[in-house]
């Protein structure tokens, strides 16, 4: 006869303090990545990519555009993934938007080779999104849709985001030269591979 599971082996959820640290880490690292990205004149995918394209085309600041662009997606986050997820994502988006606006006061970039910048951006933002996903949050928009599809169908969140990225980069060719778009795509590819390979519900319990 099998023994009952040891309570110490039961999955444990993150504490509120752990969630706060994870969301703060994710928002900060994503903000650093976005500041490096705009320093290089790159574009990216997901909702941030849409906000960057709008920012480049209009001259409006990225931070307020990113915050506003995400607003319509919170309803989906609430309906499909719950109030807690929606609120955490709202906090993450708001904090990242604030940090993107204020980080240039204390962080400046000099000469960065496009290849190094693209890979670093992919790792920075990829690790940021992993932290947010593990703590039940996202940076809104397509991230919410991607997580919903992964939970509902098993289709990896990273692949959903990659498809959306292709559409964003096609539009970016009208605003940026081909070389810049190519380097930008490398960064987005690294980011999405980080998510696709590491964000596994079947391996991580919290």
From TrEMBL:
Topology in the lipid bilayer: Multi-pass membrane protein
A Pfam family of this chain: YitT_membrane
Keywords: Cell membrane, Membrane, Transmembrane, Transmembrane helix
Compartments, as annotated in UniProt: Cell membrane
Transmembrane segments: 22-42, 48-69, 81-103, 115-133, 154-175, 181-198
Domain of life: Bacteria
PANTHER family, A to Z: UPF0750 MEMBRANE PROTEIN YITT, UPF0750 MEMBRANE PROTEIN YITT-RELATED
Protein name listed in UniProt: YitT family protein
Species of origin: Paracoccus mangrovi
